[in-house]
Amino acid sequence: MASLLSSLSSDTAVHLTTREALSGIFGSVSLACWIFLLVPQLIENYRNHSAEAISLSFIFVWFIGDICNLAGALWAGLVPVVIAIGVYFCIADGVLIGQCLYYSIVNKRREGKALLARQSSTAEDTEEEPLLRRTRTNSITIPGSGDRRRSSASGRRRMSAAAHDDHLAKILEESDASGTRLWFKNAMSVLAIFIIGAAGWALAYESGAWKPSPTSTDTEEEKMAAGAQILGYASAVAYLGARIPQIIKNAREKSCEGLSLLFFILSLMGNLTYGAGILFHSTEHDYVMKNLPWLIGSLGTMVEDVVIFAQFHMYAAEGKDREEEAIA
């Protein structure tokens, strides 16, 4: 960071203040967070072949917030990059919603087929039972075949139980080793995204694609932003309300299994750097009030993200205790 700021002392950056540079850097880092935000959860769903851990209400309400955000950007006539990012958000939300619905339909069909198979197996056993008794009475079957059948079935049950125990042991080994490893991977991911965001801003500034925006606006622009501000408040309400169904779902199931921790880390980081980018740019009353909806939507949701982090820690500890009790 220091080396990046020191490079701004050249003639091309003589008019750029430290606050403007930090505002640009934090804004670019926030943009990088939003671009990569949904990728960890999409990967987590793909690995599990399930999206049951995610509350669909969470995603749908968030989608509504992104639509309001995009509509506000279009209404305000913001730069094409901002509008393009808004379109990307909506597309990414649609991909995540589509993935959740796909796995929900596929898993329900699989469960239905498994249920039918069990019912069919039970019906066949009931129909064959008198025939088996009759063959034993008439001594037509090969001697010992019934014993082999029973031993084969019991062997399959033992193999299934052994496989289950091996799987449980593997889970426990991974849970013991994944604590520091998971946090290290997440920390490296956050560091990489921060470097990408800062480097992206530096390139944009050196090429002249990024310039500090003025903090004061004329009356015409303020009138244009009035409708966008209403949509901004609507998006802030949606963002604040979106996480509540997910928090309730986690508390009801007492589990965060299937949720990507990095997804919420990037959300927290994106909201923090977004708010910092606005406040570093200016803390004048008119400017803050103009951006208040987006500040509420970004900084307000950080409290809910912290609650979800607490749920991750609490339910992971409880799950580990239950697994140890089951083995004992």
Question: What does this protein look like?
Answer:
This is Vacuolar membrane PQ loop repeat protein. It holds the Pfam family PQ-loop. InterPro entries: LAAT-1 (IPR051415), PQ-loop_rpt (IPR006603). Its main location: membrane. Keywords: Membrane, Transmembrane, Transmembrane helix. By secondary structure, this protein is mainly alpha-helical. It has one domain. Helices cover 84% and strands 0% of the residues. The protein contains 10 helices and no strands. Helix 2 runs antiparallel to helix 8 and helix 8 packs antiparallel against helix 10. The longest helix has 63 residues. The radius of gyration is 28 Å and the shape is elongated. The two termini are 51 Å apart.
List the uncertain runs.
1-14, 131-165, 167-177, 218-222
Major sheet size, sense and barrel closure: none
Tally of separate domains? 1
Q: What's the mean pLDDT score?
A: 76
Q: Report the C-alpha radius of gyration, rounded.
A: 28 Å
How many helices?
10
- Helix percentage range: over 70%
- Judging from the principal axes of the Cα atoms, what is the shape? elongated
SSE class:
mainly alpha
Query: How many runs of DSSP E, i.e. beta strands?
Result: 0
β-strand amount? under 5%
Q: Span between N and C termini? A: 51 Å
What is the H-and-E element order?
A: HHHHHHHHHH
Structure summary:
InterPro entries: LAAT-1, PQ-loop_rpt. With 328 residues, the protein is mainly alpha-helical. It contains 10 helices and no strands.
